[in-house]
Design a protein that fits this description.
alpha+beta; Dna Ligase, domain 1; D-amino Acid Aminotransferase, Chain A, domain 1; 4 domains
Length: 412
Amino acid sequence: MKPKILLATTARWFSPARLAIALARAGCEIEAICPPGNVLEKTSVARCTYHYRALGPVNSFYRAIAASKPDLIIPGEDLATLHLHEIHYREQIRGSEGARIASLIERSLGAPTSFSLVYARTALMEMAQKQGVLAPATEVVRSITDVRQAMARMGHPLVLKTDASSGGFGVRIVQSPHEAEVALARLGAPPALAPVLKWAIADCDYNLVLPFLLRKKRVVNAQQFIAGPEATSAVACWKGKVLASVHFRVICKQDRLGPSTVLALTKHPDMTFAEVTLVRQLNLSGLYGFDYILDEKSGRAYLIEINPRATQVCHLAMGPGQDLAEAIYAALTANSIRETPTITEKDTVALFPQEWKRDATSRYLSTAYHDVPWQEPRLVRACIETVPRSTVRIVGRKWPQSVLRKRAKSQE
């Protein structure tokens, strides 16, 4: 019998759909909880989808878990992970009655002692440093006085980050005390009405509504700025052991603080050490992402954060030891990890549709491996329709959306 995985996504990102395809390819049965209209519904591999309701998020998750009865849950965003943490807390209080769901979440994410730590940026960086992992100085700041003192110790520019934020949201790089004061006020405050309405009306995304209504302030951290290029990695782990990992150097990003769109395969001993050490120390299971800065002077990799969820590179099978979906399948079936071929011999990957969305004339769409899921034509068309671009360059040519749609249709 195939192991069943429930993919949990609260947003309209593309990456959970790509991960679903990779996990199905490895031999897993896929179900999903996602917002209505999510591109996951356009894949051929999601056997069943359950609707996520942002105004009743935890109950949505409960219903999906009860109906699906999965062997593993993989969250696609930080908010999904937070919902699973809350459910675990509730089920632990219930004692033996909640043991089944609590055990499922622990199997999916790892030891519950890690749940609060992976979101507490300051505590996590301090723990990493104690384990010998290179990490920038980080501390919680609650007032402009705290920020000024942090800037005096760490220098400027200074990075301000909120706990439990992702995708570049909740991050500011400040050059002066005045900039820091403005950024601190905005980052620490509950969501403002304007973005709440914009996301709800324009994107049908209601995830900001409850935080807006509850008026809960966010924890802000000051982090030492490390000059240099960014790097990212994803790991598949099981009971504190890394099973597979893939490392990339960031080539292009959606914007200065946003997600990557083009990456180059790399290896770095500091990244490997950080992942093995922290996965063991936190006793993690499932899929996790690690973000780094490669110091421009020394070349050393400084860990800047952990993403307690599947990231947008988790579906990329880059050869033996670098196929995360295969590693998860092996863990669930208690089998040895099969060696799988790499999806490309090229070292550079342009993510679809992210790089096309960033720049429809980008040279990487033809020179790098352009990660278009042609085997899923409905998904390709859905991705195209979400991107307000009239052309895209593939294999050195400009392809109108209509031509791209026809190519996708021909694959059906």
